[in-house]
Amino acid sequence: VFTLALRQLIVAVNKMDTTKWSEDRFGEISKETCTFIKKVGYNPKMVPMVPISGWCGDNMLEDSPNMTWYKGWTKETKAGVVKGKTLLDAIDAIEPPVRPSDKPLRLPLQDVYKIGGIGTVPVGRVETGIIKAGMIVNFAPTGVITEVKSVEMHHEQLESGQPGDNVGFNVKNVSVKDIRRGNVASDSKNDPAKEAASFNAQVIILNHPGQIGAGYAPVLDCHTAHIACKFAELIEKIDRRNGKVMEQNPKFVKS
């Protein structure tokens, strides 16, 4: 989880009813969990530990009358110390991500439909930037350029599609054969998306039977694109816990 850049974590210790609401057992599990998450790279001071019983509903939404010994959780954030008691409090204390609406538009296409009376409607999720009617969009890597007539989400017309929105947008004079799943829509006037012959990637090897070196040819799934590629060279090996370089130009890496 930490390796995949998920920096906010909540530990809910479930089935407290089976331990007869034991404070000692909760303390024991919390201690073990803290040691484990610290090894992985988390700071235990930033992780709320919440004893709950999903079956009985204790400490999920409201204070539990069965765990009067539990005084609540605290966690350190950039804004300061946050306190709470229940699992719901801990979920509410998660800091929402900033939506990158100020960046150039990038919208990978999930599908392209032909709708009678409307025309060609590409569908996808806005990753960065915004899309709105009247915008001249460019589809990479094909280079097709067209105007957006309208933007919709869940059959409702939108003024603009924001990052995270799954939208469909109607485009002028483009056939369903001209664009397809995997293409990326971008604003032709603001840093349009381009084809890349090569790029540097940070790759996590979770479970692989052999060793991986230069010349390895996997199939890359990037957003909605599905394409064969080849590792030209291995630049460096990184410690996944802290991001520090362990070895320059390794010949091979393995899981």
From TrEMBL:
Residues 7-96 form the Tr-type G domain. It is found in: Cytoplasm. Residues 119-184 form the Translation elongation factor EFTu-like domain. InterPro entries: EFTu-like_2, GTP-eEF1A_C, P-loop_NTPase, T_Tr_GTP-bd_dom, TRAFAC_GTPase_members, Transl_B-barrel_sf. One of its GO terms (cellular component) is cytoplasm. SUPFAM superfamilies: P-loop containing nucleoside triphosphate hydrolases (SSF52540), Translation proteins (SSF50447). Gene3D superfamilies: P-loop containing nucleotide triphosphate hydrolases, Translation factors. Residues 198-255 form the GTP-eEF1A C-terminal domain. Keywords: Cytoplasm, Elongation factor, GTP-binding, Methylation, Nucleotide-binding, Protein biosynthesis. It comes from the Eukaryota. One of its GO terms (molecular function) is GTP binding. Its main location: cytoplasm. Belongs to the TRAFAC class translation factor GTPase superfamily. Classic translation factor GTPase family. EF-Tu/EF-1A subfamily. This is Tef1 protein. It comes from Mariorajchenbergia rhododendri.
